Amino acid sequence: MSVDQSAHPDDRTPDDRATPGRRGYAKGKARREEIVRTALRTFAEQGYRSTSMREIAEAVGLSQAGLLHHFRNKDDLLTEVLRLRDAEQSAFNRALAEENGMVALRRLVDLMELNATQAGLVRLYTVLRGESVGGEHPAQPYFVERFLVLRERVAGYLRHARDVEGVIRADVDVLVASTLIMAVMDGLQTQWLLAPDAVDLAGDFARFMDDYLRGLS
């Protein structure tokens, strides 16, 4: 009795040997990512409140019931959108976590340079943050926590520059200084989104930091 060598398991490619369950999981994961990226663009363009699940479903070629198979509701989808937004900057954040003092403060200019290449993410952040200010919003806890964490992180850089490096005056209130730096970052990003040809996002911020840090010394 002969054996069909073409059917031997060892001759099959990894894709051939993949089980239907594994293929289904990969397909489902790809579909979820497509939905999240579509939601990111839509939320950035028209806001969270003005976007319906039906719109997102139609944009990815699904029925609303099909979309709900992947995400229970719009809040669930928003959570994944914010997670993706953070993941896009995770490499930079890891590198920045290893810096401190004046080096880390100067690296904030690099962050603005990165943001200048990610207009969609900056728009998403700006639109959702603005929405979360008025009334209850599912993203409000995220933005409150993010503000407090980032303000303390930048204050830590300033504190190190003041207490360890000795390049900032002893009377500087690092929390106030951190709040101001973050306000300028947020304000410049909003102006840049409104008039990108009139605002040099990274360049204008770099000039501000040069002048401001010089005034703190």
TrEMBL record:
Domain HTH tetR-type: 29-89
Keywords, comma-separated and alphabetical: DNA-binding, Repressor, Transcription, Transcription regulation
One annotated GO molecular function: DNA-binding transcription factor activity
Biased composition annotated in UniProt, kind: Basic and acidic residues: 7-19
Keyword Repressor: yes
Record has Transcription as a keyword: yes
DNA-binding region: 52-71
Region (Disordered): 1-30
InterPro entries associated with the record: BetI_C (IPR039538), Homeodomain-like_sf (IPR009057), HTH-type_TetR-like_transc_reg (IPR050109), HTH_TetR (IPR001647), Tet_transcr_reg_TetR-rel_C_sf (IPR036271)
Protein's name according to its UniProt entry: TetR/AcrR family transcriptional regulator
Organism in which the protein naturally occurs: Streptomyces acidicola
